[in-house]
Design brief:
Blueprint: H1 2-9, H2 11-36, H3 38-56, H4 62-74, H5 76-87, H6 93-107, H7 114-123, H8 125-138, E1 146-151, H9 154-166, E2 171-176, H10 183-197, E3 201-207, H11 219-225, E4 229-233, E5 252-255, E6 259-263, E7 280-282, E8 285-290, H12 293-308, E9 333-339, H13 347-358, E10 362-366, H14 374-385, E11 389-395, H15 401-408, H16 411-416, E12 420-424, E13 427-429, E14 433-436, E15 440-444, H17 450-455, E16 458-464, H18 467-481, E17 483-486, H19 488-492, H20 498-507
Parallel strand pairs: 2-3, 3-4, 7-13, 10-11, 11-12
Antiparallel strand pairs: 1-8, 2-5, 5-6, 6-8, 9-16, 10-14, 12-17, 14-15, 15-16
Length: 512
Amino acid sequence: MKKIKKFLLGRATVMLLGVMLQLGWILLFIQRYSMRYSFIGTLIDIVALYIALVIVNKNSNPSYKIIWMVVILAVPLVGVLFYFVFGRAKLVRPTRKRMEAINRQMEQEFPQNEGILEKLCQEDKSVYRQSKYVRDWAKFPVYENTATKYYTRGEEIFPDMLAALEEAEHFIFMEFFIVEEGQMFGRILDILKRKAAEGVDVRFIYDDFGCVTTLPTKYYETMQKMGIKCVRFNPLYPVMSVLMNNRDHRKILVVDGKVGFTGGINLADEYINKVVRFGYWKDTGIRLEGEGVWSFTIMFLEMWCYINRSMEADLSQFRPEKYQTMPFTADGYVQPYADSPLDSETTGENIYMNMINRAKDYVYIFTPYLIPDNEMIKALQNAAKSGVDVRIVMPGIPDKKIVFWVSQSYYEPLIECGVRIYQFTPGFLHAKCFVSDDVVATVGSINMDYRSLYLHFECGVWMYQSSAVRSVKEDMLQTMAESEEINMEFCHKRPAVVRPFLGVVRLFAPLM
């Protein structure tokens, strides 16, 4: 009863009601006058047709374009309104220009060591091509002299996060999509308060949409009173706004510029299994120590400067070598990267596609959601048809049932081509990892769905010949052993009446 009351009186309900009331008022207003003045209905049809033509000519995913065209042309008034609020992938122009200016300035702070790229080219030209794509199009360099450590679950990464925070002497940067008061965040917050009181520069970013049901309104002010410099990305108001469509889905922790963490793990108790939601919660993470952490520092500072509308005066104080007295450990090659809805470059998806298309022996995948576009489906199918061992591990217990059903609707066409699919029997798998051929892996925050690949700010780490690559593969195989392999019989078990429903829902998959 308390949970129901909390939901009904919560921020999410207020936001939803506010937006729905505005949409309803606009619809009624236009409908009323269109009945009185016939030319208004004609004008709406013309606007809908114009927008549909604009969408056709956009450089974006075909599936995303098709569904919006269907909605807009079928129900012009509703379709146009919903498209302006939820359909535009990019930020509005002034906001986009501000962030692009910050990005251009930050790009100058990490030029690529060409010697590393040449060395990589000599070792493996196919891998070099993957790395070069990230450098040339995402603008993030590849590094050596960076140690890696992979974590198979939240309970493993959490003690190391606490230890790193305890060792902070100069600055702490944290950026997370979901933050919830509880044991996990409580212990972190205690350290952050103490470190801020000791003079450490503590900065914290959380996504307001991601925390709409987990944190009180203006929680950033509460943290600021503790001495923590805290801001929220994309503040939510009960008004219609295109900014609602873009979220900061990244998970970043940087300590003193030399230690960094990322992965799928948010700051809530289910991520370390202190509370049970959807069975056992499996997630993964990666720790970097060394030169590669600089890219995560820049990612954080870009977002920080954007939100605060100001540039950082002295970036040199955050460099990895600033406070490191001993040489960094070399552990293969690492290339942290970010993905942004600002441009037409789908970095996260292209990194995944490159790994699939260039795999020689196998590619194993962890993903909580499987809502790929046509290009990704074809890549997975063609790799399997070519004899590559393609395996995907999904949750056994879903967190969002409709999304889970849509994900399952892709099982049959993939299994038909030889892709092996598993469901993690103990519970919910929230990890986002790829590993291929014992040499290449990526760990990050990017799901295999439209929102992660096209609409969210995301991040990850691409690795070659790092010790973490072997750890990712071992974790994949161990998790598969705990999972149920899905076969065609499972796909055919669905009642005949369910299949048409899934077909309709799948049509709207790009909007989920």
